[in-house]
Write a structure and sequence with these properties.
single chain, 576 residues, alpha/beta, Beta-Lactamase, Rossmann fold, 25 helices
């Protein structure tokens, strides 16, 4: 390897006593990092570049690494709090380019950290920040500790950091985890702590992948773990698992037969929490969450349409939990359940004595209760026309006047409307206000019915719901085929109910058989479990009308119809 140059900047470092801070035994990661910095023309006395990501790019990266951040928050932060409670330090989660995605830590160190932009959105690669634990760990692809004056830039000398690369289940570099403190408080345990936290995060990521997790030493928290498919194929491994694979012959089928430390992942709770969000587009179910969330964050009203039981409220609750307003109220109102004579009082609130039977203290109303948060108006098509008129005025002016009052009150909420009815058809029929429709339909999200999900998606849903209800029960092949063949007009809600009944009837028997499934008869025989039945239930006129409304855009038409582009193309070919 090329030796460090002895003149210029290096001489200045030697004369200033800095080189004594560098490890002297062989070519260390710190020495290699300094050499890279010098070759890039960096000077120790210059100021590091700010190198901040624009907010839009930071948000995009955080969305890209959503699972990584979720595991960091759920599994790493509680352990970090226990291990380093009360110590002035900051824990940083970074992506594979050294951009900080998430931060946690003691407020006492925050002021020093902010001074050098040790915060979300800052990029800490070596090219802009010189030698530092984050950038150097990524460059070396190994854990690194950078203490005080070992930092290349003098302005970072007050800092000490320990970092460990993060590897995904496939062994690829995902990012880096870093603990930073001021130099005086960086204990000798920091490198071991960040290594422990990184292993915790990697194990959590492995357990979030679907498959059979083999724990080769179930008594150890840091056991070698392998993720296997149904046929014993290797899908992933943790750090210790990759070491084990390098030392032992691999026979996945034998490991499955032995059942040593074997469990199905993700855990039932994790699977159920992610489940009933149907894939509304062929390009990936994540769009059913990502695009609406971006719209909400911009204050754009959402309209979610889908059949009964297709997961409209579940989607809204998920969006709320992932939004910047997750700590503020989510108010869900079923407009169809409001008493006809009290719709306006329930929505807009009222003052005491406003009408016969009114409470003396009055009522806040749902719209004011949602102030600062998210308001979901479910089955909005059931609102009477008079209430629609008042709601339109609220949305236009962003003020609410309670029933019986003349004093308007400002409100701030994000609006999500939902309906199982075709609101556009109601507008054409004169039963829903056209101006209100365009006000609530800033972005229209169509949720596909369960029968339009792919077979693997439906199989996964059935498996996960069953694991949540009764892990001791398994579904026979015949029973699974019957569930897949049934159209289930009640969608996920009906499926859950059918499985709940089957679990009761099959209790203690080990298997759910077709006789345990109490499903209504299907008129004209059972439908095919292979999907694609959605178009057969849509009239040819509806398909052509939707295509016309979308200007021939097949992707948009498929989204509105709740089917995949492939299915729509196939149907169009069949029609000639």
């Amino acid at each position: 390897m090329k030796a460090l140059p002895q003149g210029g900047p290096i001489r200045e470092c030697v004369e200033g006593g800095v080189m004594s801070e560098l490890p002297q035994s062989g070519a260390s990661p710190i020495q290699r990092s300094w050499e890279r910095c010098l070759h890039q023309g960096l000077s120790r006395q210059q100021s590091a570049e700010l190198d901040l990501l624009p907010q839009g790019e930071l948000s995009a990266r955080q969305e890209q690494h959503r699972t990584l951040i979720a595991c960091f928050q759920r599994f790493v932060l509680p352990l970090f709090g226990q291990l380093l409670a009360g110590r002035p330090c900051r824990l940083l989660l970074c992506d594979g380019e050294g951009a900080i995605l998430a931060v946690s830590g003691d407020d006492r160190f925050a002021r020093h950290a902010e001074r050098i932009f040790l915060r979300s959105g800052a990029h800490w690669g070596e090219a802009s920040k010189g030698t530092n634990a984050i950038g150097t760990a990524l460059a070396e692809q190994s854990e690194v500790q950078v203490l005080g004056a070992q930092h290349f830039f003098a302005q970072h000398s007050f800092l000490s950091c320990s970092a460990c690369p993060l590897l995904g289940p496939d062994g690829q570099l995902l990012g880096v985890l870093d603990i930073s403190t001021d130099a005086a408080h960086h204990g000798g345990d920091m490198l071991g702590t960040v290594r422990l936290l990184a292993m915790t995060l990697e194990n959590a990521l492995l357990a979030r992948q679907p498959g059979w997790l083999v724990d080769l030493d179930p008594q150890s928290l840091w056991s070698a773990r392998l993720l296997l498919g149904e046929g014993g194929e290797l899908l992933g491994a943790n750090r210790a698992g990759r070491l084990w694979l390098g030392q032992h012959p691999f026979d996945g089928q034998q490991l499955l037969r032995e059942r040593r430390g074997l469990r199905l992942v993700p855990e039932a709770g994790e699977r159920a929490a992610r489940l009933p969000l149907p894939s509304a587009v062929e390009e990936g179910g994540s769009q059913a969450q990502q695009v609406p969330l971006k719209m909400l964050e911009r204050g754009i009203s959402l309209l979610i349409e889908g059949e009964t039981g297709s997961g409209k409220e579940h989607l809204v609750r998920t969006l709320h939990a992932r939004s910047s307003r997750r700590e503020r109220p989510l108010v869900c109102v079923n407009c169809g359940a409001l008493p006809a004579e009290l719709v306006e009082a329930e929505l807009f609130g009222y003052v005491g004595g406003a009408f016969s039977g009114a409470r003396s203290q009055g009522s806040q109303g749902y719209l004011r209760a949602a102030h600062g948060g998210i308001l979901m108006l479910d089955e909005i098509g059931e609102l009477p026309l008079q209430a629609q008129t008042r709601l339109l005025r609220v949305l236009q002016e962003r003020v609410v006047t309670p029933v019986g009052s003349h004093r308007p009150e400002a409100v701030d909420f994000w609006l999500v409307s939902a309906s199982h009815r075709d609101l556009a058809a109601m507008v054409a029929a004169g039963t829903f206000r056209e101006d209100l429709y365009y006000r609530i339909c800033g972005w229209r999200q169509q949720l596909a019915p369960l029968r339009a999900w792919s077979v693997p998606e439906r199989q996964g849903l059935i498996l996960n719901l069953l694991a949540q209800m009764d892990p001791a029960l398994q579904l026979s092949r015949e029973a699974e085929q019957r569930l897949l063949a049934h159209p289930l007009p009640g969608n996920v809600r009906q499926l859950k109910q059918a499985l709940e009944v089957a679990c009761v009837l099959a209790e203690g028997q080990g298997w759910i058989e077709p006789a345990h499934l109490h499903l209504p008869a299907v008129e004209g025989g059972q439908s095919s479990p292979l999907g694609g039945s959605t178009l057969r239930e849509q009239s040819r006129q509806r398909v052509q009308q939707t295509l016309a409304e979308c200007g021939g855009n097949v992707s948009e038409a498929a989204r509105r119809l709740g089917i995949s582009r492939t299915t729509l193309y196939r149907a169009l070919r069949e029609e000639g």
